[in-house]
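Sorry to interrupt, but I need a hand with the structure work. Please put the record directly below this note.
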Amino acid sequence: MPVVVRDGTRLSANVFRPISSGPFPVVMMLTAYHKDEGPTRYPDILRNHLKPEFNLGPIEVSTWTPWEGPDPAYWVQQGYAVVTLDSRGYGKSEGIASVLTMQDRHDFHDAITWAGTQGVEQR
């Protein structure tokens, strides 16, 4: 779904939400790593080590989980909406790429404001 930021650029977002009616609290990320590339598209070296052992055992993620992103399959079951956005110039978002710049800050601010005004309700 498109999220239009202050200069008219459209950022591409995936929105996952519970089936029940909302509004819902939001877990959100902005990424230059392509939001639509889940675990099967992670680089080989990472894909071969997807189940790191921690004190609690291996960590597994759903196919909707972008690199370094929240797992929608987990968070939606907890009653949250999950919004993942491709940052400007990456993935399916318009614009010229710039990482960790003031433009990225403005874009994420505008996307957070957008999510807060959506109510992220089931439609």
User: Anything to note?
Assistant: The chain has a mean pLDDT of 84. The CA atoms of residues 29 and 84 lie 5 Å apart. The radius of gyration is 15 Å.
